Each structure stands twice: as structure tokens, then as C-alpha cells.
Amino acid sequence: MYDTINFRLTQSEAGGVDFLSETPCHLADVGEHYFNDDVVLTGNLDGLKVSLSRHQMKIYKGSLCKWYLGDNFQTMGRSDTQRAIEKLSDTLHLPMSKATITRIDIAQNIITKHPPNVYFNHLGTLKYANRLQQPSGLYYRQAGGQLCFYDKFKEQKSNKGQIPELYEGKNVLRYEHRHTNRIASRLNVQKITGATLYDEAFYINLLKLWKESYNSIQKINDISINFEAMRTKQQLYKMGVLSLVGQAGGQLQMIEQINEAQKRGDLTKKQAYDLRQAVNEACQIKEGLTVPNEAITELNKKINEAVKFYR
């Protein structure tokens, strides 16, 4: 389930190779630039962006999965990743298994019953993340990276890419967990190298995080009147509050709006407290007044199955 992988290989890790004179011959579209008065060469390796300086080489853009398998509709697991890094090493004549990894994208294409935007509407807030819904998809920005949900079919067509026959005429939702900042410390390892990527324990932990991050998103279910759970006026009032919570995007989003209103001075401290309490009380009986959304139930199942299948 690996997709984009960024590498950084230093001169000492590469055995003292002269990147500027020995590596450009393996690249296309080589250009020369200057950074802090040092020469930097940039080039392309069949879709992977490469930069070279006197001290290091970086692969900083492009899908390793697409580079190795031909497209990133396919899934690249541990074995494919090992073979891809071996091929990269042979192509560049560099020990890429020793390179430090500075970005990891774990991703999967999921064939769904409904168009992807149907599912976006039922994915609510995520603690410690900013939820950004855009025409192109749904994004959660976190301190260490992003969770991304988008229509893979549309993305491929906009890039004029070919759609594999398996996916023709299907709804394809793409879910990516992008690790882009301080990834070693966030994944509780001392260092991540190319060889680390195909370590079994490390890979399983990444898949677990991919699944758990999705499961941590607050799901917005369909709200229905359950008369077995609601027989009093007070319960009816709570149903109204719960309906507003659903429209706001979930419990955390509603609380955030109340807090912002307090900061603006629209609500007093006491009023904000009372509203937060009303929201929390309504959400405590949420199970009695909501029903699981069919689309989210489907997506939950497929996310969990993906982790089991692609280990």
C-alpha cells in the first residue's frame, strides 16, 4: 500500500560517490541551479523527481508505486517495495536501501457502491486535525501529515492518465495517509531507511495507523426518530440538538463553533457552558436516536478488509 516515498541519500551513505558527476547520466531533463552558492542538478527518472548536490541526492516527488508497477491503481506491498528499491539502486548505481526516508504515503483505492463525495459528507471531525472539504476531495491536516480522501477516477482523468480495465465504470475512492514531518519520531523508530520499508513489523504498524486514523474520524450517521428511545418532550428537545450537531459536522465541530462564538463575545461564558452541556448530553443518547449510515458502514468494512488483505 506504499505510494509516494521520498528518499535522501548522503555522500557518506553512498560510499563517497560524486553525485554531480556520476549520477546525472541516469536522469532525463537535467537542469542546473544554484542554492546558497552551491550547484544543484535536478532531473527526472521516469516520473520521479531527483535533485543532486555535492553532499546528497534527493528523490522528492513522484509515486514509487507508479514508477515500479506502471500505475498507482495497483497496490504495492512489502515484497514489491523491496524489489522497487532494488531496481532503483540498480538504475542509479546507489545503495537506496541505506537512504533516509523523509516521506511515506500509505494509500489504497477502494471500489465503492456510491460516488466518493457521498462518503465525504459522512466523515466528520478528527481530533487535533483541521478538516478541509474541497471540490477535489476531503483533507485532514495534522501536525505530522495529512489524511486525504478523493475521487481517484476523476484525478486520473484530469491528469490524462489511463484507467485500468478493472476500474472502468466504477466508483473509486482513494484514501491516503501521508507522513511528511518528523516521521521517525512519530512512528517510534530511531531512523527509517529504504530497508525499513519492507520490514514486516514496521509495515504492519503503518497499515494499523492507516486504519486507526480512519476509525478516529467522527462519522456522521443518519438521524431518525426512534420512538422507543424518545417518548418525552425532553428527549424530543435533545433530538433537535442532535440534528443541529449533525448539520454542524459532529460533536467536536459543534463545540468548536460554540467556543468561537464565545471568543467573539456573541455568548457569555455561562451561555457557552450551557450550550456545550446541551450538546454533550444529546450526544450521550446518540445511539438511540441515530442509525448507521449505509455508505459509512460499507466504507468501514472495506477499510478494515484492506488492512487484512494487503499485509
Describe the structure.
The chain is of the alpha+beta class and 311 residues long. The chain is built from 12 helices and 12 strands. It has helices at 19-22, 64-69, 78-92, 116-120, 152-158, 183-186, 200-215, 233-248, 251-264, 269-284, 286-289, 294-309, and strands at residues 2-10, 28-35, 38-45, 48-52, 56-61, 100-112, 130-134, 137-142, 145-151, 171-179, 222-223, 290-291. Strands 2-3-4-5-1-6-10-9-8-7 form a 10-stranded antiparallel β-sheet. The longest helix is centred in the last third of the chain and has 16 residues, at 200-215.
Key descriptive features of the protein:
311 residues; alpha+beta; 2 domains; 10-stranded antiparallel beta sheet; 12 helices; elongated
Outline of this structure?
This protein is an alpha+beta fold. Helix content is 40%, strand content 26%.
Q: How many H/I helical runs?
A: 12
Q: Which residues form runs of ≥5 with pLDDT under 50? A: none
Number of strands: 12
Which value, in Å, is the CA radius of gyration? 24 Å
Proportion in β-strands: 25-35%
Largest beta sheet: strand ordering: 2-3-4-5-1-6-10-9-8-7
Give the helix/strand layout.
Blueprint: E1 2-10, H1 19-22, E2 28-35, E3 38-45, E4 48-52, E5 56-61, H2 64-69, H3 78-92, E6 100-112, H4 116-120, E7 130-134, E8 137-142, E9 145-151, H5 152-158, E10 171-179, H6 183-186, H7 200-215, E11 222-223, H8 233-248, H9 251-264, H10 269-284, H11 286-289, E12 290-291, H12 294-309
Helix pairs in contact: 7-12, 8-9, 8-10, 9-10
